[in-house]
Design a protein that fits this description.
Elements (H helix, E strand, L loop, with lengths): L5 E3 L1 E2 L2 H6 L57 E2 L2 H7 L10 E4 L2 E7 L8 E2 L3 E5 L5 E2 L5 E2 L9 H12 L3 E6 L1 E2 L7 E2 L11 E16 L10 E9 L28 E4 L5 E3 L33 H5 L35 E2 L6 E2 L6 E3 L6 E3 L7 H12 L2 H4 L1 E2 L4 E7 L2 E9 L10 E10 L1 H5 L4 H14 L8 E3 L7 E2 L3 E6 L19 H27 L18 E7 L4 E5 L6 E11 L2 E7 L14 E7 L4 E5 L3 H4 E7 L4 E9 L7 H10 L4 H5 L8
Parallel strand pairs: 5-10
Antiparallel strand pairs: 1-2, 1-15, 3-13, 4-5, 6-7, 7-14, 8-9, 10-13, 11-12, 13-14, 15-16, 17-18, 19-20, 21-32, 22-23, 23-24, 24-33, 25-26, 27-28, 28-35, 29-34, 30-33, 30-35, 31-32, 31-34
Helix pairs in contact: 8-9
Length: 691
């Protein structure tokens, strides 16, 4: 072969060797990897308009041309990325394009070409590994330096290559341009009916560095490419155009890509490009030098022999079923373990569907239902979980030095009040803007008839039977393909409450089941008691408190939000600062333990970093604990989160919704009517524990 810097039987002529120094992407002769100061630039092709020369990742031009029908049907699909992530074990990354387990890649998502060279055929994918990008002000990805071997994606893919790890591939769509709502995938020449589609199992056959096509700023840097080969070479691929099922189906040993040895570094490289051979050893002085001086990096294409070459894989590496089987309840499980929050692939229509109901799954396409209500957790297990968590209390509890803490005991409860400081930016104002009061019940209050243990069991029955219907709601990007559901399940009773997620109209307290009303009675008493205790102590000890934020009077609650938590569920940092809310919020923890954190909001002034304020209060919540937040300005400067730490937990929170702040007469009247406590429940209202 007439190429430079290589040997294959005979050394290439000297004249040809010199020609390799006339590179189109900037001559870096005698430079080692990482020593260059300026980005490599390639000559622009005169055949294309300047506007189409942008090879910046994500900027590939997509043209709305007619597309062929697919040869087959995908194994699983969804219009929601989260549904694919929830229902597949190999790809669970809601944001990243690569999923890994123990630093080994297991799955990737491809939404289109990253560079013009990218290829997908019936049995082969060639694509950049990705990672190491920066973002411009518009969120577009670009490189400002060579991709490092220290990037996570590179390490994960290299480990997958070395271990023969099967890689599940998901194909998706991306927006054609910022001015349309059209989505497509320019890696494929078929019409994709759904936004996300499972391809098949692949494995990495090789990884190599090359210079990327020119970015719009004229720069070109080294990045890593990979070639993936379909594991099952005998089955047709559904993602090729109909009628072309046999194209590019090759057998192991049918094609062999030529290999040459570089005379500069003495390393072998395959002849991967149609334009000729080049050394792809990144540390070689002749890296990416071609024998032809007029090679245009932006026009490089992989040669057919390289694309058609098939290699064998280690047969001892197990390949799991691509589509997981439907979940079932094992005798030793409760049904709220972490895995039961995963999604399913509908056995009827193959739609990947998220678990949105506490009691099971409903296909998001055809309506197929799989009922699997969690079994009741016995109190012995709940007490064991809480006792174990109690042993970690010293490590978990934290109180910032700027918080004033006061402890006291009342019949049936140990009470701890934390006075939260005003923001440092409010110089000259009152020192404290709110209180957080923890009520921890005595053992007798837990175990007596009608105590917290009984209330937990009643709540389990109510959620299992559907008397309380818990569901996961959209937390962000509602209705779009990026929609994400809450980690927890929720149900609202009494007055309507919109707390950052869409909740259906509340059920009236007049029709609420007993555990809801019993919890309401307990929380109303606890909220009133917390306001009295915190106000009395602040007055007696001369604390400088903002009485507008934390008034001394208490208003009875008219709303209740029940949150159900499976194992490892959580509610992320948020506040309860909606304008419709009164100053007091009380939440009861039933079941497994959890950790509640309070931190200052961004730019609240409590920390030194404007982007991340410090955690200022950490409370490990036990079964039966109640936390009362009193003070409207708490939610102006603080936010809180809850992380469940066991098999089953309910967080029952009550608030006062101010009808006068409702936007319409209808909603105001509904809040008043739904929030009324029936007389027979008023007569049975909780009044504390016996002395």
């Amino acid at each position: 072969m007439n190429s430079a810097g290589l040997s294959s039987g005979q050394k290439a002529p000297t004249a040809v060797t010199k020609a390799t120094h006339k590179r189109k992407a900037g001559n870096s002769e005698d430079e080692d990897e990482g020593t260059h100061k300026k980005p490599r630039t390639a000559k622009k092709s005169k055949a294309l308009p300047q506007a189409k020369q942008d090879r910046t990742p994500g900027a590939e031009v997509l043209l709305p041309v007619p597309l062929a029908k697919a040869a087959g049907e995908t194994l699983a699909y969804s219009n929601f990325r989260a549904a694919i992530c929830d229902s597949q074990q190999f790809f669970t990354s809601h944001d990243s394009g690569v999923t890994s387990k123990k630093c080994i890649a297991t799955g990737i998502l491809l939404t289109g070409k990253i560079t013009a060279r990218d290829v997908i055929k019936s049995q082969v994918i060639v694509t950049p590994i990705g990672g190491g990008f920066d973002k411009d002000k518009k969120g577009n990805l670009f490189r400002d330096k060579d991709q490092s071997t220290e990037t996570r994606n590179y390490k994960y893919m290299l480990n997958a290559w070395m271990n023969g790890q099967p890689i599940g591939v998901v194909i998706g769509k991306k927006k054609l341009d910022s001015e349309t709502d059209l989505y497509a995938n320019n890696l494929l020449s078929i019409e994709l009916e759904h936004h996300y589609n499972v391809l098949d199992w692949f494995f990495v056959t090789e990884i190599w560095p090359e210079f990327e096509p020119t970015q719009k700023n004229g720069a070109s840097f080294k990045h890593f490419m990979m070639k993936l080969q379909k594991i099952d070479l005998n089955s047709p691929s559904w993602w090729v155009p109909k009628g072309h099922e046999r194209e590019n189906m090759c057998a192991i040993g049918q094609f062999h890509c030529r290999v040459f040895t570089c005379t500069s570094c003495n390393k072998e490289s395959k002849e991967i490009f149609q334009q000729g051979w080049c050394c792809i050893n990144a540390s070689c002085p002749k890296f990416f030098h071609f024998s032809t001086p007029e090679v245009n990096f932006d026009s490089l294409q992989y040669n057919d022999t390289f694309l058609n070459e098939r290699v064998s894989r280690d047969p001892t590496v197990e390949v799991q079923p691509l589509i997981p089987s439907l979940p079932f309840m094992e005798p030793t499980l409760y049904g709220s373990e972490k895995k039961f929050k995963d999604g399913i692939v509908c056995p009827t229509c193959r739609c990947a569907s998220r678990r949105q109901s506490w009691n099971g799954w409903t296909c998001e396409n055809c309506g197929f239902q799989l009922s699997l209500p969690p079994k009741d957790v016995d109190m012995a297990k709940i007490h064991r979980e809480n006792q174990k968590a109690l042993g970690k209390r010293r490590k978990q509890n934290f109180v910032d030095g700027r918080i004033v803490k006061h402890q006291q005991t009342i019949p049936g409860y140990d009470v701890t009040t934390f006075y939260l400081p005003n923001s440092p930016i409010n110089q000259g104002e009152k020192d404290f803007i709110g209180s957080v009061t923890l009520f921890r019940p005595a053992k007798s209050a837990l175990e007596r008839e009608g105590g917290f243990d009984d209330l937990f069991q009643e709540m389990q029955e109510a959620t299992r039977t559907g008397a309380v219907q818990l569901n996961r709601r959209p937390a962000r990007c509602s209705g779009s393909h990026k929609e994400e559901l809450t980690s927890h399940f929720a149900c609202n009773m009494g007055a309507d409450y919109k707390f950052g997620v869409v909740v259906k109209t509340s059920e009236s307290f007049s029709s609420a089941p007993p555990p809801v009303m019993k919890a309401l009675g307990r929380l109303t008493w606890t909220g009133k008691t917390a306001v009295e205790l915190s106000s009395t102590y602040a007055s007696a000890h001369g604390l400088s408190v903002d009485l507008v934020s934390m008034p001394t009077n208490f208003i009875d609650f008219n709303e209740q939000l029940i949150l159900g938590y499976f194992e490892d569920s959580k509610i992320s940092f948020h506040d309860d600062g909606e304008k419709e809310l009164g100053p007091t919020v009380a939440t009861l923890s039933l079941g497994s333990p959890s950790i509640m954190n309070f931190r200052g909001k961004k730019n609240a002034g409590f920390g030194t970093d404007e982007k991340l304020e410090p955690t200022m209060l950490t409370i490990r919540l036990q079964h039966g604990d109640t936390v009362v937040m009193h003070g409207t300005r708490i939610h102006q400067y603080f936010e809180h989160s809850v992380d469940a730490a066991g098999i089953r937990r309910y967080g029952v929170t009550c608030r006062y919704i101010r009808p006068e702040m409702m936007t319409s007469d209808e909603s105001r009247q509904r809040a008043i009517e739904n929030g009324k406590v029936p007389l027979h429940w008023q007569e049975r209202a909780y009044s504390g524990e016996a002395a």
